[in-house]
Amino acid sequence: MWRAYARGVHIRAAVDGDAEAIGRLHVRAWQAAYRGVMPDAYLDALDADDRTRMWRARIGVPELPPVLVATEGDEVLGFAAFGDERSDAGQTGRGELYAINLDPDHWGKGVGRALLQAATVALAELGHTEAVLWVVPQNDRARGLYESEGWTADGATVTEELLGVTVAEMRYTRALP
Question: Among 3, 4, 16, 164, which residue carries the largest CB count within 10 Å?
Fold first, then answer.
């Protein structure tokens, strides 16, 4: 599943060899995006090796949709994970964008938009007609991207534990093509 985008960026399914790069950029993205939202001590203690192990266990699981990566040459610039809505329990059949993260050095260059578009298409290809995502309200950069791509806040909020930290999130929805 190679898809080419501007600047030589490609979107493809992640392979096991991408796990280390995904783990590193996951930590960098959270440390940059959530500073002032999550406790500094928590963000400073994030461990790329832990995230690498987490992603290695997820990548290539046959029962799950692929994790997508945005690459330029051999460099992994970002990733997106998605699938069936986690809280759905088979009720509505909606899809969910679980995570989308970019290395902060590549923010504002169109890579996130390309990755979001590819994940949206992939959710539709899985048979979903609607999708949801959850975002921290203070993440204005991500919210602006989502809104520019047709996602809309629907008023639902939740406070949950995400990888060891309690955070508030708001839900966005979108009809899929």
Answer: 3
The tens digit of pLDDT for each residue in 1-59 reads 445 455 689 999 999 999 999 999 999 999 999 999 888 999 999 999 999 999 999 99
Closest CA to 21 of 61, 96, 73: 73
pTM for this structure?
Answer: 0.91
The topology (CATH level 3) of 3-131 is Aminopeptidase (3.40.630)
Distance of CA 33 to the CA centre of its chain: 13
CA distances from 92 to 66, 127, 152, 156, 175 (A): 22, 12, 18, 16, 13
**Residues in contact with 30: Cβ distance below 8 Å, sequence separation at least 6, in sequence order:** 38, 43, 46, 101
